[in-house]
């Protein structure tokens, strides 16, 4: 049975940090979290600094970097394999969709442009990214011609992109879906496809095919732009937008604040009791930066910032652990 309880810890931030933002990205490498991109005002990228948060000291610094520094962007994703952070896509100040893949070597603080232009996935923003110990996966998002439903992987050892078979019409193109690797499969959970969705699909690389699954249990309501992490066979989702704003990205929709967990073996959802409504709970929000990783030896979900029901960007940091 999936863990039915969880706890949130609000993490203090010592000194000046990057501050409030949404549509940004963060990933954990060792005892540090690397944050990049995002917006404070809708659609306007804040900066292209790489902000580094020490998970032990709770202090922010700005990395002194070299190499091919990415321009500012929103709707960007990042993940890490080993000591290397990978940043893909997003949308620039002119609202242009991007498709460059950058790496950042945390051991030497150097950016490298790995692909772009005609190579690799098409341009997109508000897509989803996850990684295993070798590959970085990209799914969906908002492309130049609408919402996408394609799955790609960058093989960090071979240095090449892999385009997987099309998911077909059964998996509608979408932005802000959950994406996670569990049981050697790549899971696509929910997302926005013109409406908030509540379907679950996976791609099996061993079989080279897609499948849609029917889930049971206490299923979350349809939603998108939530925080996602996989721990073992369990996929956790937190928050997200359950009713979009009439103003689109310029406004704040209705946000959820619950945590749910999907057992990818039993295909059963459970609501996690995590103290919703208490002082140390992050509450309803979406468009957050999030990452799976360890803090103090515990494996869990780091959540930084996001957008609130009042349309104010947030700058706080929380860490969720199943108990």
TrEMBL record:
Keyword list, A-Z: Iron, Kelch repeat, Repeat
One of the GO biological process terms: glucosinolate metabolic process
Pfam families hit by this protein: Kelch_KLHDC2_KLHL20_DRC7 (PF24681)
Xref: InterPro entries: Kelch-typ_b-propeller
Requisite cofactors: Fe(2+)
GO terms for MF: enzyme regulator activity
Span list, region Disordered: 1-22
Keyword Ribosomal protein: no
Listed name of the protein: Nitrile-specifier protein 5
Phylogenetic placement of the source organism: Eukaryota, Viridiplantae, Streptophyta, Embryophyta, Tracheophyta
């Amino acid at each position: 049975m999936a863990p039915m309880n969880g706890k949130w810890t609000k993490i203090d931030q010592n000194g000046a940090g990057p501050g409030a933002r949404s549509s940004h990205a963060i990933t954990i490498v060792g005892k540090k979290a690397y944050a990049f991109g995002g917006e404070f005002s809708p659609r306007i990228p804040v900066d292209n600094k790489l902000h580094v948060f020490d998970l032990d000291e709770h202090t922010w610094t700005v990395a002194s970097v070299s190499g091919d520094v990415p321009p500012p962007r929103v709707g960007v994703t990042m993940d890490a394999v080993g000591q290397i952070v990978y940043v893909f896509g997003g949308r620039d100040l002119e609202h242009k969709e991007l498709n460059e893949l950058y790496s950042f070597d945390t051991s030497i603080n150097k950016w490298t442009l790995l692909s772009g232009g005609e190579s690799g996935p098409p341009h997109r923003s508000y897509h989803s990214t996850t990684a295993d110990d070798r590959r970085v996966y990209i799914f969906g998002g908002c492309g130049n011609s609408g919402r996408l439903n394609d799955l790609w992987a960058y093989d960090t050892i071979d240095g090449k992109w892999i385009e997987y078979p099309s998911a077909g019409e059964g998996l509608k193109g979408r932005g802000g879906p959950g994406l996670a690797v569990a049981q050697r499969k790549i899971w696509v959970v929910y997302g926005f496809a013109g409406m908030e969705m509540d379907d679950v699909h996976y791609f099996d690389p061993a079989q080279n095919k897609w499948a849609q699954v029917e889930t049971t249990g206490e299923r979350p309501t349809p939603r998108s732009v939530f925080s996602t992490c996989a721990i073992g066979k369990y996929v956790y989702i937190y928050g997200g937008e359950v009713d979009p704003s009439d103003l689109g990205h310029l406004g704040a929709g209705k946000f959820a604040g619950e945590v749910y967990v999907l057992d990818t073996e039993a295909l059963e959802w459970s609501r996690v009791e995590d103290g919703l409504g208490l002082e140390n709970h992050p509450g309803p929000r979406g468009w957050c930066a999030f990452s799976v990783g360890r803090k103090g030896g515990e494996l869990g979900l780091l959540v930084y910032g996001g957008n609130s029901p009042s349309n104010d960007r947030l700058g706080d940091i929380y860490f969720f652990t199943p108990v």
